[in-house]
Amino acid sequence: MKNNYKILYLTRWYPNRYDPMPGLFIRRHAEAVNRFCQVGVVYTYISEQEKIRGFDVDFDVINGIPTAKVYYNNPRYNIPVISGIVKGYRFFQAWHKGIKRVSKELGNFDLFHIHILTRPGIMALWYKWVHGKPYVVSEHWSRYLSETDNFKGWFRKRITRLVVKNAETVITVTQNLADAMQQHKLKNKNYRVLANVVTDDFLNDPIQKNPEEKKKSTFIHVSCFEDKSKNISGLLNMIRSMANKRNDFIFKLVGEGKDINFLKQYARDIGLTEETVVFTGLLEGKNLVKEMASAGLLVVFSNYENFPVVINESFTLGIPVIATRVGGIPEFVNNSNGRLIDAGDEVALEKHLTDYLEGKLSFDNQKIRAESHDIFSPEKIGRELCDIYSQCLTGQ
Predict the structure, then answer these.
(1) How do residues 208-236 score in pLDDT, each as one tens digit?
(2) Domain boundaries, position 338
């Protein structure tokens, strides 16, 4: 049953007209919360792909959620001071237009939920100071982690600290990220750890293997195909090494992203064929569930990472995970549901996969599914988030 709270998501990442992958987990959070509160979403995008006159406000009600995606251009000239003023003006205008459009559908909202600092947080801070609207922050970005060390710039740090300090609550998906943020002096009295949500498709489907692939074991990788962080090229190198020794497996690589064409070409260049590696493209919903459920193992070979939601999804299907020991992954992956390896260690990855193929490594799939089924459900995450909103708005 829904309460009367109206929550407006301001997010830096979200599926958009140019790329359907960014912020999928944020959309799922919004859908989970929308079961218990009324939710709207505003997302802005500075387009370099096309020339846009003014602001293009793309509004739709997506799965019951009023959503405004605002596309615009930054000035093409670079005149000191003037360019900065114009960029700042366009930034505020874009967010205001999106907020105004969603508010027209949603009505007067009670609280902002910021996803991904820092820019959306600036808008929330302004609304708090001017209109008294409280806000909470959810951070997912790995830039604070020591492996990346991408949180730089005196002004950025000062503004981010101010935004975090004035939030009612700061939510992260792992304790590792919360600790990293606080090491950067991003202080708040109410840090909370809350897992990413998986969709009902993963929770409702029983474990099932694809009968067409009995002759070969299937391994799967799901990501946004950004090679610097996900290290898919390193994964392809490992696959080539395995393929030179055996032919009893197939690797499914699921997703889209900026490096997809490069990685397809790289696979061809090192001699991999579709008998060993299949690029499926973007899969969602039941199509993704079917592909993942047919796999024996999920592989996450990231150089750096916070905590990818695909691990949650894999566990809810009872599929164990081989992953790198980075970010918050060790908080969830252990010897009962997978194996951890060092980032970039192709030899260790190949050994674990070989052991699995030879029956030397096995897992209790039903136990993995049972232990994770309730932890990541939309029901649990949505209700918990609405409880957080209620605490912020009532002070209880």
Answers:
(1) 555 554 578 999 999 989 999 999 999 99
(2) 200-372
Q: d(Cα 198, Cα 162) in Å, to the nearest integer?
A: 32
**Helices within 110-196 (DSSP H only):** 119-131, 154-165, 175-183
**Residue 328, domain member (yes or no):** yes
CB neighbours (10 Å) of residue 14? 22
Report if residue 1 sits inside a domain. no
Asked if residue 216 and residue 81 are part of one domain, the reply reads no
Cβ 53 vs Cβ 67: under 8 Å: no
Instruction: Say if residues 246 and 353 touch (Cβ distance below 8 Å).
Output: no
CATH number (domain holding residue 342)? 3.40.50.2000
Segment 50-58 long-range contacts (CB within 8 Å, at least 24 positions apart): 55/93, 55/94, 55/97, 57/97, 57/98, 57/101, 58/17
Q: Show the low-confidence residues of the chain (pLDDT under 70).
A: 1, 205-214, 396
Look at residue 345 and tell me if it is in a domain. Answer: yes
- The string of DSSP letters for 96-122 reads HHHHHHHHHHH-S-SEEEEESSSHHHH
Please, are residues 135 and 128 in contact by the beta-carbon 8 Å criterion?
Answer: yes
Report which of 270, 183, 274, 206 is spatially closest to residue 234, judged by C-alpha positions.
Answer: 270
Q: Report the distance separating Cα 329 and Cα 324, nearest Å.
A: 8
Answer yes or no: do 154 and 211 share one domain.
no
198 and 316 Cβ atoms separated by less than 8 Å: yes
Nearest to 164, CA basis, from 125, 131, 194: 125
Express each pLDDT in 118-140 by its tens digit. 999 999 999 999 999 999 999 98
Peptide bond before residue 324 is cis, with ω within 30 degrees of 0: no
- How many other CB atoms sit within 10 Å of the CB of residue 341? 21
Q: Are residues 147 and 10 in the same domain?
A: yes
Question: Angle CA(293)–CA(294)–CA(299) in degrees, nearest 5?
Answer: 80
- What is the Cα 212 distance to its own chain's centre? 31
Only one residue has tokens 């136990």, namely: 367
* Predicted model pTM: 0.84
137 closest CA partner among 150, 123, 149: 123
Task: Mark whether 177 and 311 lie in a shared domain.
Answer: no
Do 39 and 133 sit in the same domain of this protein?
yes
